Amino acid sequence: MDKKGAAPTLAIFIIFILICAAAALATFQAGHQRQVFTIQQLMAVDVVRATSSTIEGELNQTLQSAIVAAMYEAGVHPENRDVENRVIQFLNERIALGWSYSNENIIVPLCDENSLVLEWLPDGSMRARAYLAAEVRHISGVVANGISLRVNVTPRFERLKKVAEIALDLARTSYYPNLENELNNNYACECLEILIEQNGGLTVTVKDTFAGKVVVT
Amino acid sequence: MAVAIMFLLVVLIGVLLHTFMLTPLRSSTDRQLQLKSEYIYETLATAWVENYTKSYLKAAADNLVLTNPTVPGEYLRSAMENTLDYILPEGYAAEMTLRLYENENMTWELIYPNVGQPTSAEKQFIHSGTISVIRAEAEVENRTILVQATLTLFWGG
Description:
The complex is a heterodimer of chains A (217) and B (157).
Chain A: H1 2-76, H2 83-97, E1 104-107, E2 116-120, E3 126-138, E4 143-153, H3 157-173, H4 179-187, E5 192-199, E6 201-208, E7 215-216
Helix pairs in contact in A: 1-2
Chain B: H1 2-19, H2 23-46, H3 56-65, H4 73-87, E1 92-100, E2 107-112, E3 124-134, H5 140-143, E4 144-155
Antiparallel strand pairs in B: 1-2, 1-4, 3-4
């Protein structure tokens, strides 16, 4: 009796085995694909976030460098003392060069006076804030939006300019035998160093010894 | 009956093996190391070298570009090695390379610990970025100096 029922039972079990194996395989594959997809998406999120953060960090330093360069140029070119437009121009020149990362499309819009706020602080230094509607898009579709810039620059450009103008005016209109020493004594507490030279024309140089190498003539 | 029980055991063991499969674990470890390389890069890009108001990467770019950099080269290397010693995962080494866009022969390189260049067979976790320096009193085309910075994290043994 047992031997008679063995063949159909075995056949049923084989079919059962095949169906279960196929179902298990499909489940495993689907689970594995879900895991791989999740990991890929997480990696893409990490990548765009890291790229966005790297660009933001770089642009912050570029903005700082641009402000110092603009102050320097405005200082040595008395015919054009416009710092703000120079900063915007220098920063835009960097943005225009663009960025190249594999698997990512990066769009950073140029800044203007609406997106970049430059504030002169009471001590004559400058603070800059900006929000750029940037887009870092990974080929998988993940996107990081926006870059925020915030920079405080230590050179007190407006104060240096004012002191340079005062020193120049005094050197032209008044006679003080030790004007340079007197001025240096007066402004020593502000960490300003003043140099007056007569090389054909009158040149006044004011150095911010606290902040670094910034010169106004 | 015995065949059925054996089959069910095989399926259960298969499920258990699949649950404990190491592939996702390895991927997660790789992801952590990739994040770590980004974290190390960002640390070097934002943290200042002690006694100087410049970040490690900015100071390294200055060393590459300027004749008289603010942070002396040897001091920068020593300070960067100290920082890397603190933030590197155990057993891993980092290679920091800076290369001038205008002239690819001009490079600044640091490997810590000094285990030599990573081989192509080793798994590497790379993060790169750019450092830009604005040059005053320069023509428009020469005003922005671009330096490519690449951090490679690899198993140092």
